[in-house]
Amino acid sequence: MIFREIVCILALALATGSSAFAPAPTSRPAAAFVAGRNNGLVTMQAVADSTNIGTSSATSASVLQDYEHHTSDRLPYSPTGYSTWEWNTHHNEQNQQASADGASDNSQSSYSINYLELGDRTKPALLLVHGFGASSYHFRYNIPILARKYHVYAIDMLGFGWSDKPIMDYDAGVWRDQVVDFVQEVILNGDENSEKSVAIAGNSLGGYTAMYAASDKRIKDNVKACILLNAAGRFRDPEAVEEKGEPNPIIESISAAIQRFVIACSFVYTKQPMRIEQILRQVYPINADNVDSELVESIQTPALEASAAEVFYRVITKNGSGPQAYVDDILKELECPVLLAWGESDPWIKSAAADKMQKLHAEFHGENVGGENGSRWIKRVSIDAGHCPHDEAPEAVNDAILGFVDEVLGVVQ
Question: How far apart are CA 288 and CA 291, in angstroms?
Fold first, then answer.
């Protein structure tokens, strides 16, 4: 996301998800309930059998113990998250500092990642990635419906929701690698030869992360579809001239201090429940009735932790100059079909962004309606909603996702 976009949705970062930023505990207590199987269906937890899912935890919040997604259209809210996957990764402050100093450090860190799993394990997988500051609960109206036909996962990105929030620099590569590792370790169960089909969907920053991960060579053979719900991202500017020069440490220090002060003030102001609701209603311009107390609580609760403001500052400042890869480059590398399910009344990421994605895709891969000339094709479905169409107009988004994935995978309606 370019800095202008982040500043524009600074309130959204705490409104569409103050839930995002909270400190990073070294370990997270596991929930006390374990789900059972019923004819291959996982009816409660994100992981029903720990022996089949690498390092993931076979626990889930009690709120899902008796939940039945075949009869309920809304996911129950859990104030402590759902299930936990332990992510072992090289992304940590020690490695970042070593890299900045021109050294190397291969230390590993383990982070507790909140996620949810629902549906028949024998079916293709559908992974949902939330937007900037949100959590897996933001897919509350999508998960139950989609899980009736597919094996659905929703994950909290590092620094967001009920996943750990380590004090480190956050960039697009962190979340890309998290999604890639989750697909490999959890969805594919660590099987390099697995033929399980995976579709990845994401909203806002999660949309950017979804396409970034889907284009990664480590999992692209399994990823058969990518769904972008008002995806964020920076496009190349063909007229831009790169400016190089020696940084001025005094100016940089003053700039950083000002940024920290402004962001800290914004954090304190916008994490108040009334303000969260007010801003959410601005990004739900068509159907603000879906902004309710549980959504507000899911946004505010993790933001109350002690170091939430520091993590928020790190995310904002690190991503201020944009992601490490341009949308142009990612679209060029994507080998799977792409669905743009776009909230056309988005006040921040305008419809012009989707227009440009379609144009770029055609330039890179040609006009390929419905995959007549191979797997690289793109489809757009306009949704009467704002920045978060999946929660503001869930029925339309669910229909769009199911129709697209059914078409891509050849699933009989």
Answer: 6
